[in-house]
Write a structure and sequence with these properties.
The protein is mostly helical. The chain has helices at about 1-15, 20-30, 55-60, 70-85, 85-90, 95-105, 110-125, and strands at about 40, 45, 50. It has seven helices and three strands; from the N terminus they run ααβββααααα.
Length: about 130
């Protein structure tokens, strides 16, 4: 029985993800909770989570970039991107790292000071 419990716990940890409150907070920080074809970053980002074409391509999600105007599709893209670049943070549900990655890309560790405020805003919005 203990072995089964340990196996189930490990399997659950492998597939962990950030909580729903993370997605709601990310959406709030990015676009104040607005939906649709919201352009940002001088036209370089699109949708409720403000996803760029490069971010979309890096996510390896199939389909067209324009699908990110739908919140569900944007979350699917962001999830794939985060699992690709920060699989351990994804498994741990580490919202600080995932927020920084979303904000600054895979090289976020070289931009800690630049991502401090963004990560703090996301974490604050989760409360």
């Amino acid at each position: 029985m203990k072995i089964l419990f340990l196996f189930l716990a490990l399997a659950a940890a492998t597939h962990a993800a950030p909580p729903a409150s993370f997605w709601k907070a990310l959406h709030q920080v990015e676009t104040s909770g607005r939906l649709g074809a919201i352009e940002g970053d001088g036209g370089r980002s699109l949708g409720p989570l403000q996803i760029s074409r490069a971010y979309f391509a890096d996510s390896k999600v199939t389909g067209s970039y324009e699908q990110v105007i739908e919140l569900e599709a944007a979350i699917k893209v962001a999830s794939a991107y985060m699992r690709r670049y920060e699989p351990e943070a994804w498994r741990q549900g580490n919202v600080d790292i995932l927020a920084r990655l979303h904000n600054a890309g895979p090289s976020w560790r070289r931009k800690l000071a630049a991502t401090d405020g963004y990560a703090a805003n996301v974490i604050r919005a989760m409360r």
